[in-house]
Fold this sequence. Notes:
The chain has helices at residues 12-20, 23-33, 39-46, 50-62, 84-87, 90-103; strands at 66-70, 78-82. It has a single domain, classed as Arc Repressor Mutant, subunit A. It is mainly alpha-helical. It is globular. A hairpin with a 7-residue loop joins β1 and β2 (78-82). The chain has a two-stranded antiparallel sheet. The protein has 6 helices and 2 strands; from the N terminus they run ααααββαα.
Amino acid sequence: MKRTRFASDACPVARSLDQIGDAWTMLIIRNALAGTRRFSDFQNQLGIAKNILSARLEKLVDDGVLELRPDPSGSRHQEYHLTDKGRRFRVVLLAVRQWGEDHLFEDGEEMTLLTDQRDGKPLRRLEARSHDGREIGDADAALEIRRRTTG
């Protein structure tokens, strides 16, 4: 079955899912954020087939989420490093993580928890805020079509 592409869609959610909306891709980025750099480490940690991993890593490099760098040890291997674009995906994974914590685990069930290294406390819940700091609910937001401008 051919996958529908959303690269030209006016919706940023659709375009984001077109580029990153695959479970393996999100897990690769999750592991890269945790420090994984080598193909073999991604493969061992995720248990993903080599051909699928190779395709996902190649796409992430082509899309500017990861970049290849020579192994600092001087070996012939290359390492995958997150670009700024890739590092900025951290907040997306945090939102997905917090949604999963809130809705996908039963009371008393074991799960990983992301904590602040300084004090060991869980991270504050993400929330939508207006330009002036007010919390924004569903009824407070509106979708508009605008041209993208930088700055």
